[in-house]
Structures are given as structure tokens and as C-alpha cells.
């Protein structure tokens, strides 16, 4: 299941762009792009884990030149096949370690990592390295934006460690929480059209807002804004996710 493309190989990439899923709704994409375009302030943006260009393509259409870093060639092939996909420069590599050559055009005023993808880095060390890598490629005064869910530990009754997040006649999906390591692998069980069952497990590491702030601090960044979502609803006790913006100080 895992190869050089990580957990987003050809089979996953083929079904990634799902127009019925929440992340692909026009209003979700529009509010994300509005938020990011404003922060780019007329400059360039770097998307860590750019995927199939769900956000990079409409952001580029808004006039923000986007450079991507991406591990999976299969996901990149999907981006390339879309109108405008050839125009997005992408560097293949691990977002925790890969840098883009900024000699000619200078560092980025905006680096962003959306759709819970910080959790695809499954150790604290890798998540810290990702913050350092983002900070290194940011211009002074620039913004690093992360969109990620709040860990769903409050949904766990005492003694249990599983949260279901999808149940239908042909698909079940659940997260198994380990509070000792912050591992939170997701399991997907699907009944195929010929009646067989398939199981797929994808590892994740959950991370709290305060821990992200500490990672930012280690990388020399400081929190500027935290919202519940892209429309700038205030972040609150019951928020299920957050969009956080850390800035690289000017001096
Ligand atoms: C949930 S998708 C998000 C794609 C895109 N950002 C979006 O919002 O639709 C996660 C992406 O992260 C990529 N990815 C996972 N781990 C990565 C890593 N360490 N470095 C670079 N890309 C990674 C996967 O290949 C996949 O394309």
C-alpha cells in the first residue's frame, strides 16, 4: 500500500478529487483562496503538500503564483492533467526537508499547509522540522498558515480509543487514538462492488494548537491569528478545527 508516493499512490490519487466531499465545495475553496490571496499580498505562495492542486490551481487563477512541494508523483500527475496544472511549479520531496530555490525570486511572503496535512507527518520531530522548513523559506513579515482539525479526544468515552467518522452500508472509517504517542491512524474498510472487503490504514499524528505554537516558536515564528475556519469565525472551545497564521518577525 505504501511506496515512493507515500500513502497517496495511484489508486488514492485516482479518487482524490471527489466533487461530493466537503473540501471540494465551491464555497469552501472560495473562502480558502480569499484568505490566502489576501495574505500573499500580491506576492508568491508556497504550498506544502500541494496534492492535485485543489487550492493551488484556483489560487493561481486569482493571480498568486504558486510553487508546490509534494511527495507523490501520482498526485502531481493529477495536478498536471488539469487546466493550468502545467503552470504550477512543483518540487518533489518531503515537506519537512525540501527547499525551493529562492535565489532568483526571493523568499515567499506566504507558505501554507492545509487540509490536516501536518498530521501526515507522524512524529513530533518531523512536524517541528516542517515548521523550521516553512520558516526558512518565508520572507520577513511573511505568514505560515496551517489548517488542521482539533483532536477528537473529547468524543472518547472512558476506556475507549476509537472515534468513528464515517459509517455507510459500504464504507466504515475510524480513528484509533493513542494518547501516549499522539498516533491517530485512520482505518478505512470498504465493501467493493463484487462484495469483498478491503482494509486500508493511514498513519497520522494528532497535534494541539498549543503544541503547534511551540513548534512555531522553535522555528522563530509567532502567532498572529487563529480562526475556526477560512471565513474568520472566532476560534472557540467547541471549534472542530482551526486556521492559524504565524508570522516571521521582520527583524
Ligand atoms: C490530504 S492531501 C492534501 C492535498 C492538498 N494540499 C489539498 O488541500 O487538497 C495530502 C497530501 O500530502 C502529501 N504528503 C503527505 N506527506 C507528505 C510529505 N511528507 N511531504 C510532501 N507531501 C506529503 C500527499 O502526497 C498528499 O498529496
From TrEMBL:
MF annotations from Gene Ontology: methyltransferase activity
Any one GO BP annotation for this protein: methylation
Record domain Methyltransferase: where: 46-142
Coiled coil: none
Statement: the UniProt record of this protein carries the keyword Acyltransferase: no
Top-level lineage group: Bacteria
A Pfam short name: Methyltransf_25
Signal sequence interval, chain numbering: none
Alphabetical keyword list: Methyltransferase, Transferase
Protein name: SAM-dependent methyltransferase
Species whose genome carries this gene: Kitasatospora kifunensis (Streptomyces kifunensis)
Amino acid at each position: 500500500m505504501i511506496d515512493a508516493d507515500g500513502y497517496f499512490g495511484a489508486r488514492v490519487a485516482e479518487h482524490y478529487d471527489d466533487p461530493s466531499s466537503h473540501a471540494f465545495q465551491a464555497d469552501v475553496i472560495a473562502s480558502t483562496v480569499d484568505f490566502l490571496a489576501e495574505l500573499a499580498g500580491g506576492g508568491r505562495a508556497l504550498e506544502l503538500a500541494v496534492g492535485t492542486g485543489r487550492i493551488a490551481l484556483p489560487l493561481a487563477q486569482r493571480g498568486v503564483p504558486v510553487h508546490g512541494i509534494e511527495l507523490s508523483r501520482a498526485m502531481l500527475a493529477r495536478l498536471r492533467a488539469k487546466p493550468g496544472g502545467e503552470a504550477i511549479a512543483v518540487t518533489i520531496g518531503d515537506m519537512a526537508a525540501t527547499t525551493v530555490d529562492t535565489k532568483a525570486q526571493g523568499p515567499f511572503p506566504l507558505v501554507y499547509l492545509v487540509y490536516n496535512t501536518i498530521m501526515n507527518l507522524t512524529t513530533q520531530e518531523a512536524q517541528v522540522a516542517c515548521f523550521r522548513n516553512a520558516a526558512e523559506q518565508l520572507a520577513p513579515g511573511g505568514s505560515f498558515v496551517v489548517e488542521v482539525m482539533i483532536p477528537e479526544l473529547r468524543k472518547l468515552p472512558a476506556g475507549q480509543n476509537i472515534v468513528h467518522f464515517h459509517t455507510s452500508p459500504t464504507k466504515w472509517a475510524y480513528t484509533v487514538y493513542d494518547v501516549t504517542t499522539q498516533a491517530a491512524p485512520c482505518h478505512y474498510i470498504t465493501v467493493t462492488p463484487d462484495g469483498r472487503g478491503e482494509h486500508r490504514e493511514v498513519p497520522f499524528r494528532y497535534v494541539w494548537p498549543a503544541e503547534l505554537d511551540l513548534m512555531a516558536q522553535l522555528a522563530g515564528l509567532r502567532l498572529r491569528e487563529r480562526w475556526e475556519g477560512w471565513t474568520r469565525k472566532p476560534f472557540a472551545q467547541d471549534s472542530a478545527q482551526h486556521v492559524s497564521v504565524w508570522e516571521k518577525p521582520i527583524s
